Fold these 4 entries.
Entry 1:
Amino acid sequence: MIDVVMGLSFGDEGKGKIIDYFSNDYNVIARYSGGPNAGHTIYHNNKKYVLHLIPSGIFNNKKCIIGNGVVIDPVILKQEIIELEKDGIDVKSNLIISKYAHIITPDHIQKDIENEKILKIGTTKKGIGPAYTSKYERSGIRICDIKEFYFKKLEDSYNYDVLHDFDKNILLKYIESLKFILNYQIGSLDTYLNNKNLEILAEGAQGTLLDIDFGTYPYVSSSNSTIGGVMTGLGVSHKNIRNVYGVFKAYMTRVGNGPFVSETKGKYGKIMRDVGKEYGATTGRERRCGWLDIPALRYACMINGVTSLVMTKADVLNDFKEVKVCIGYSYIDENDGEEYSLYTYDNIIYSRKDIKPIYKTFNGWSTKDNIEPLEEYIQFIEKEVGVKIEIVSIGCDKYDLFKR
């Protein structure tokens, strides 16, 4: 059976910690979408790790799958493996890479950089979008294609006289990384993952509002970070999906451009950023911060079939006297000039420049000595969204949480 941990916002919800916490109960942890634009932060043996490609169960000696729905940068994967193995983590025995996963090339990265200058989406410039474009244009390179012909193509390119030393260094590093990861386990994982004796935890990347179809297009990622990505990204049946754990913060953040109705740019946003260390795990960019958005959270629960909620970073709001929640939106209709209110999420309306949040205010709390206002906040969210919050995270360590 398969349980899923996925993000319900703009990514950065704290999925890595929750997956690390859950992983002891499973045989396999499997990444199903995205690429090295993901940054799952985990604290292990008092050291901070940021995993971009390797699933977050690697610290618990579990089989860790990089599924066919993931796009892989060999250079980043090699660096990640070396860092983990240097600290005594057994990657060799536990990491398995789908032979159908596509790889990111130096050309994809360069194309991404050029695209971002024009589109200004706010991507990580890791080559993710162009790699998925090659995949769907049927011109991509999969892991299983590398030995067949790709090395010869790369080595022929390396011998071109037109290449400068800088280009040759990049290409040589890339070739060495490809050869390195071919020493690890590679296989056809669809049959393996449909073994009914396995307990599998599917690990999501990014968040629902960054989904290529259901997110704030065009300010989205390049893959399906929603529930459908589990099936296409791992080759498993919907019949095998049991629980869907939706992860969200007690407040809300976003990296990069795009609409963010409940964003607060004043002192509250700064406190959230400073206390919550809200800087992109992959890029280091400042995260935009704001209040929780109930219609967006309800929408994410609906389309993903979320069965349980996990709230993270409740402790970040400990010093707030008041906590706001966005319960709806208001906007001026361009036809009649009247102001309208909307209490459900709609991508098109959410992206309007004139939209404003409608807030409800709660008393602040302390996760150390004044938990009652937090419980009131939690119960309000549960009532509005219709899904129980089973776990609340109140710190960095994977055991800094409580169950309800």
Note: The chain has twelve helices and 20 strands.
Entry 2:
Amino acid sequence: MMDKGSTLSGRYRLLDLIGEGRMSRVYKAVDQRKVEERAMDPHIAIKVLTIPFVNYTDAMNVLTREIQSLHGSQHPNLAHVMECERDGDTVFIPMELLAGQSLHNRLEALDGAPLPKADALQIIKGITDALEFAHGKNIVHGDLKPGNVIVTGSNQPKVTDFSLARLMALSANGASRLTRATGRLKTLPPSYASPEVLEVGRLDPRDDVFALACIAWKLLTGEHPFKGKSALAAREAGMKLTCPSQLSEGEFNALSHGLAFDRSKRTLSPRQFFAELTGTGGGIPKQLIALIAGLVIVAVAFAAYYALKGGSDKLTQADTAPIADTAPAVLPPGAEFRDCATCPLMKVIAPGEFMQGSAPDDADSQAFEMPQHNVAIAYPFAAGKYEVTVGQFAQFVADTGMEAKDCAVYDGQWQPSNEVTWKNAIEGQTASYPVSCVSWQDAKRYAAWLSARTHHIYRLPSASEWEYAARGGSVAARPWSDPSEACKYANVADQAAAQR
């Protein structure tokens, strides 16, 4: 343990121990360089890592890379981290000295009472924003808990300790080499870690969703969702969540979704979790879940490189190749890539704003008018350039054993047919045809399979993401002005319609 008054790297003089965890100690310190520069406040925090490393160079490289990625641009809900340094065998991180208290201490002071709902939602929203920002940088926290959230005097949460859980793989107590699919993390707090992290130790953004849901439940009810038990103990005991009096039915459903023991059934992202919790996310109409001929699957991939291996669901047992230690280069907007030989061709789309919906430009179009509203897409993403093909879908079916289901066919009216499936939906179809007779649920399963196969997160796009991608930056209602040119750009009517 470092002594009070010790100096690191001849620059940082330690004053007081202000926090201690399983992998680090945090000191209030004076930055001597700031003193020399006559800064208004020379005080900072120094996080000294207490876990021994087999290879200090690897540890420094990992921390430096992720600090640069995560803290290159300051985020209001992240504790600002300057750099990673080493003094002999002491690895330490100079960081922002936060004025506030940990969320753990704040909850302890409430003694089992819930936080006022407005304050709770503000904190949940801030943590959500921090996680979304980090996930967009290919970084999963992996150790999210109230002790790693500092709440300022203005009720602003700041999340700390990203990547420290992953360093256990480089320590003398863990694996000798760090990969994106980290080794078993036995030291994670059992009351907030997901079952997959406790069982396998492989990090995935949905593990952060599980921890976020645990924190949200605690904030809104004053109690832990599983009465303090670990997720594994709760699952083995067959514990079922019941709706407490402090939660509405919608809030309970959102929290239950985020706390699903099975990762494949859990909320996909922090943003989706918060939307469900607050009722700001649109649901899927039940009639759209039915089997519909000609449904096109459009997979959206976010570049988060974490293994989804584990669990008993067959989708998570698909082929999983080793993951590289080094994060891939960020692809520029317009770049195209394919994650595997039978994966869809994806195209990177830049953030931006657009006017969603349409205004009628003639009398005939009034029946199809959609209310217009401005939508901001604040994150880059990649969308499938073409429809998923019969051949690509067939690979998914072969790997997962999914059974072919009946298809709805049209002969004057829609009705199910047990003679038609995706395998023979179109007469004479080949592997290059767009797959049809696929339900919304099948499309979700296909995206989950792609995630497991490639270690990237694939999902179906939201309505706003799909329209933004389809418009390609245009503000016009359609990419042609002369109706006679429509067939140059789009399939506006199929051959059966043309015959009629």
Note: The chain has two domains: 7-278, 286-499.
Entry 3:
Amino acid sequence: MVQPLWWPLRFLRMSRSCPPRVTARLAFPIACLLVAGWPLAAAAHVKWFAPYDVPGQPRILPEIFKLMFWQPLSAALLAFVLTCYLEPSRVGAGILAALDRFSRWLRPRVDDLYRAGTAAFFIALWTLGGIILTPELKTSSPLVPLLQLGIAIGMFWRPTMVLSALGIVVLYAIGLWNYGLFHMLDYPIFLGLAAYLACSGLEIDPFGVRPLDIARWAAGLTLMWASVEKWAYPDWTYPLLRNDPGLAMGFYVDYYMSAAGVVEFSLALGLLWTPLVRRLSALVLIAMFAAAIVPFGKLDAIGHSMIIVILIGILVDREPAIRRPPISAMAYYPAALVATIGLYYGLHALIYGTAIW
């Protein structure tokens, strides 16, 4: 066994020897500590509140991979691996049991939550007008609000959920036509939502995959992609930080943006991992998005309401998953990071001709 990992293994051996009553008492406080251990970055989507330039030249990779990048990345990887080691222990089981007790009243109603959340989201867009799917995706078409209203109405009956799903795909296609592929790669979560609604309406699990897992993967991939933006285009956020220095929590803005991207990427990857990791990741992300509503207001609340609804479904889900050896996190994490950054920069260079190095 690798030497730096001996102390988490010793902790896990101790946790397995704890009496069940002690484990149960420790479970929720430990869960709270794990949640509090992540820095709370401002989770507002910068494109909604500040000028942006999608085709513009991103920071080249050598400018990103500085000490201020590797420091938070090392801490995040350590926290990720420790949570993986914690999961098979009694403490991990106790945390999952505490989450189950907390959410048992909502678990059977997740489908109702998704349908109600979708209806509320699209009614809000219909009321605001001039928005395709998110606040920066503008439209002057009079047909888009009618389609949004139709999507909301379709949530009332299971057979019409399929039509609503098709309507979401149409809105995404309108976004592609008006804003291009790269911009819309910020929002595959809406395609995941459409897939969830279609599968739920038809009451099918395509290829044995639950609709909730499709929505979960779409949410995770969406946030992993969005995290790269904080490294590639930190200057988009600088005006917000100048107007409200408290958002940076006392850090230098460059370090803050680098750390915020690391936190978002780590939590997003956590949504694709094992039950304890993904449920704690969902819990922290919900807290982050909810906290962002306070400084950024109603627009942020509407814009993030759908992802918060999906995250709540992930938080309360107790479906067992294939167990992964905790040590595998040390391989999957950097592989996912390299793949995400490589795809982001490679696709941007292919479409817009920008530099990578």
Note: The mean pLDDT is 85.
Entry 4:
Amino acid sequence: MPSRRCPHCKVESSYQVGAERVRFSLQLPYLLRLDTCRNEECACVTGVVFDGSTGEIVETFPQLESEPDELFPEGVKIAFRQALRSLNEKIWDGCVLMCRRALEEAMVDLGAKGKVLYDKIEDLANQNKITPDLRDWAHEGRLAGKLGAHGTEEEEKRWNDETDAKEIIEFCKWFFRYIYILPKQLEQRRQRLTQEAASNGG
């Protein structure tokens, strides 16, 4: 039975291979099947596209996310890649800490001044480079990372858990999307509209 890391539960698991095969393309030898994770706490289904002649897996749906967006600056990409891979390996504190590092890399990339992350976030907010809501979001990420690094005085919450890791990953995705992806998309749209207007003689 095939064994691979499940994109749902993140466990290295064997799979019950789906018996039904659906032709994925008339031009290519690709077929689609549905495999079921054998982890009893999961039992989720993954779509598998494979080569019908060799059996080699071409792609799975959903995919196990491990790569950040290419539009991120290099430092942000390095840190966030490690955060995603830590999430996949269930290293919750490592995930949260690398999200904090990715956040700090973003602050530096945006020209923030200050010795600590708190000061950098406040500096960007004072420069109006991030909105008040983004400032508050960034502080949430900072505090989560602080817990991973130092713990708290309360014994019942000294380590991050799965929920903490997933929440800060999702927060970082939205934060980076707002400060890097959306401006790039807006720039591309403006360029396209300008080119269309020029070609139409407008």
Note: The radius of gyration is 22 Å.
